[in-house]
């Protein structure tokens, strides 16, 4: 008999993640959807940075970035990533590890179109992760992109989404006396989830 109750209850880890994020949206002062995204480079050196989680789908998590950035290249080479989200006011974290593919279709176009014009032109102007001689050079590049693309720029081919399909999802919540609760969901070969409570 499982003792997975309360905030951990349910058969769908994506539904639990959505519910926790909704609580965080009410509790956190800023960026409740920020995730620390970890990748590995070709020398196996780990890398990590914050990005914003934009969609929790039926079986995947989606974020957006520049495909030529360091993270974009690392994901292209390995096909894998992990992330953690931590909410200080809720004292909870979610950890996710899995396989990553590009989202560069209509969904990416729609998300790109939903962003402010400055952000859309900024995406065109940024050679993300490459050396930049000055802030003025970036501002000038964005202005130039405005002249080239006008007020309705198309999504740049080098910018779009990544979809992470988890092999593991772990939910962690702070417990009294440091007896925290941890539940790890592991995807089986038949695509069902095995759920284990772990020592904290
Ligand atoms: C709260 C927060 C949210 C961010 N969201 C994104 C994002 O959604 N996409 C993105 O490309 N960079 C985002 N960044 C910037 C990244 O952390 C990082 O500086 C940039 O993507 C370059 O990373 P890379 O050189 O490892 O590819 C965010 C930074 C912070 C602090």
UniProtKB/TrEMBL annotation:
<feature type="binding site">
    <location>
        <begin position="49"/>
        <end position="54"/>
    </location>
    <ligand>
        <name>FMN</name>
    </ligand>
</feature>
<feature type="binding site">
    <location>
        <position position="172"/>
    </location>
    <ligand>
        <name>FMN</name>
    </ligand>
</feature>
<feature type="binding site">
    <location>
        <position position="71"/>
    </location>
    <ligand>
        <name>FMN</name>
    </ligand>
</feature>
<keyword id="KW-0560">Oxidoreductase</keyword>
<comment type="similarity">
    <text>Belongs to the pyridoxamine 5'-phosphate oxidase family.</text>
</comment>
<feature type="domain" description="Pyridoxine 5'-phosphate oxidase dimerisation C-terminal">
    <location>
        <begin position="159"/>
        <end position="200"/>
    </location>
</feature>
<comment type="function">
    <text>Catalyzes the oxidation of either pyridoxine 5'-phosphate (PNP) or pyridoxamine 5'-phosphate (PMP) into pyridoxal 5'-phosphate (PLP).</text>
</comment>
<feature type="binding site">
    <location>
        <position position="111"/>
    </location>
    <ligand>
        <name>substrate</name>
    </ligand>
</feature>
<dbReference type="InterPro" id="IPR019576">
    <property type="entry name" value="Pyridoxamine_oxidase_dimer_C"/>
</dbReference>
<dbReference type="GO" id="GO:0004733">
    <property type="term" value="F:pyridoxamine phosphate oxidase activity"/>
</dbReference>
<feature type="binding site">
    <location>
        <position position="93"/>
    </location>
    <ligand>
        <name>FMN</name>
    </ligand>
</feature>
<comment type="pathway">
    <text>Cofactor metabolism; pyridoxal 5'-phosphate salvage; pyridoxal 5'-phosphate from pyridoxamine 5'-phosphate: step 1/1.</text>
</comment>
<feature type="domain" description="Pyridoxamine 5'-phosphate oxidase N-terminal">
    <location>
        <begin position="23"/>
        <end position="144"/>
    </location>
</feature>
<dbReference type="Pfam" id="PF10590">
    <property type="entry name" value="PNP_phzG_C"/>
</dbReference>
<feature type="binding site">
    <location>
        <begin position="64"/>
        <end position="65"/>
    </location>
    <ligand>
        <name>FMN</name>
    </ligand>
</feature>
<keyword id="KW-0285">Flavoprotein</keyword>
<feature type="binding site">
    <location>
        <position position="119"/>
    </location>
    <ligand>
        <name>substrate</name>
    </ligand>
</feature>
<feature type="binding site">
    <location>
        <begin position="178"/>
        <end position="180"/>
    </location>
    <ligand>
        <name>substrate</name>
    </ligand>
</feature>
<dbReference type="InterPro" id="IPR012349">
    <property type="entry name" value="Split_barrel_FMN-bd"/>
</dbReference>
<feature type="binding site">
    <location>
        <begin position="128"/>
        <end position="129"/>
    </location>
    <ligand>
        <name>FMN</name>
    </ligand>
</feature>
<feature type="binding site">
    <location>
        <position position="115"/>
    </location>
    <ligand>
        <name>substrate</name>
    </ligand>
</feature>
<dbReference type="InterPro" id="IPR011576">
    <property type="entry name" value="Pyridox_Oxase_N"/>
</dbReference>
<dbReference type="InterPro" id="IPR000659">
    <property type="entry name" value="Pyridox_Oxase"/>
</dbReference>
<dbReference type="Pfam" id="PF01243">
    <property type="entry name" value="PNPOx_N"/>
</dbReference>
<comment type="pathway">
    <text>Cofactor metabolism; pyridoxal 5'-phosphate salvage; pyridoxal 5'-phosphate from pyridoxine 5'-phosphate: step 1/1.</text>
</comment>
<comment type="subunit">
    <text>Homodimer.</text>
</comment>
<feature type="binding site">
    <location>
        <position position="182"/>
    </location>
    <ligand>
        <name>FMN</name>
    </ligand>
</feature>
<keyword id="KW-0664">Pyridoxine biosynthesis</keyword>
<keyword id="KW-0288">FMN</keyword>
<feature type="binding site">
    <location>
        <position position="54"/>
    </location>
    <ligand>
        <name>substrate</name>
    </ligand>
</feature>
<protein>
    <recommendedName>
        <fullName>Pyridoxine/pyridoxamine 5'-phosphate oxidase</fullName>
        <ecNumber>1.4.3.5</ecNumber>
    </recommendedName>
</protein>
